[in-house]
Amino acid sequence: MLHWTYVVIAAFVVVLVIRELFAERNWRNQVALALVLIPLLLRILHIK
Amino acid sequence: MNRHHIMAVALLVAVALVCTLAAREFVSMYRPDEIIPGPGVKTVGALSKYLGNLIGTSSDASVYYLDSGKPGATVLVLGGTHPNEPAGFMTAVVLTEHVTVLEGKLIVIPQVCASGFTCTDPLEGYPQSYSVQSESKVRTFRFGSRGSNPIAEWPDPLVFLQYPSGQQLSGNETRNLNRSYPGRSEGTVTERIAYAVMQLIDREKVDYAFDLHEAAPEIPIINAIVTHEKGKDIAASALFTLETENLQFALEMSPVNFHGLSHREWGDRSSVFPFLMETSNPIQGRLRGKTEEALILQGTDEKYKEAAHLGTMRITYELTGEPLARRVGRHLRGFQAILNASMEAAPEKRIVLQGLPTYEQMLERGVGAYLK
Prior knowledge:
heterodimer, A: mainly alpha, 83% helix, B: alpha/beta, Aminopeptidase, 2 domains, two-stranded antiparallel sheet
């Protein structure tokens, strides 16, 4: 149960980060946000 | 569309690309290693036979039964309790592929923590695999992590409460099979593996059980045999034989109050005589330099050489290196010596093996000579 709760939280964080990615105007900050997405996506997809 | 929106889309595409490329690497670790049953293997089963809820999971390990059909002792050998300790795994593979049993029964699980073979430990820079030239081809095996794959049990707790003792350990130890015995049928993935092993010991009426490990050269319990109180006479007798062959092993007693360990829980909770063996593995050490496949196979590390030369540390590192062949040879010789000692102690419980390489043969010909 806790496992899937964490997966849902990670998915929610991904949504927030993508929202920020589109709102952010500084490209350096956009790259930083994109980097954050990689481990979150790999974990949600149960790859790593 | 604004410029920063175009940038956001481009970055999302880049993220998708990186995830795809990374995923290919990570998913490749789920491809099982090829273990070719030798002439002695009569049946190949799975750990899920002893606990049904392991079926279809990455933790369902293969179990190889080498049965002579004649009465005698039943012996269990576990490799891969810690998948980043390749000598234990390779010793079990050599037994599976090369040995036949003339009396008694041998059960081998080369990758008991199968899930741990699907990833490596973070921040260690470990290679994902290593290759050995066998009689016929190049055999590649995965180099795994110390515990089960975190994906199977995410998140680790902050504090691991060992079941049923309640002993507290650091959170990541929740994925350590050798802290999880006796396990429970509905517990974490690692506890379920431990439970299945306990069930196997009971149902197959195992007399002697071996858990094959390695450790960093600077760890005090190295080149050692660890046993439960009831196995000390057998282990001491085996050590005496090994000493006469100039093979030094330390005899370590299983700590009474340290729970979850194979030698403690198997001994306390079943009729089995448990033995855990350790060899010296530089790739696990904190002093190591370049962390690559050669360090697994040759075990030669300049930093350990330097430390050994300076004499400033209590390490057992051989200046010629700690090659895989020597480590597997030590495990095999220790295994045989313990079996011989156990047959002296209980002559009615015999196990006779054919084709078991000697320590000298292993050093001379290498591990690959005993693989298919």
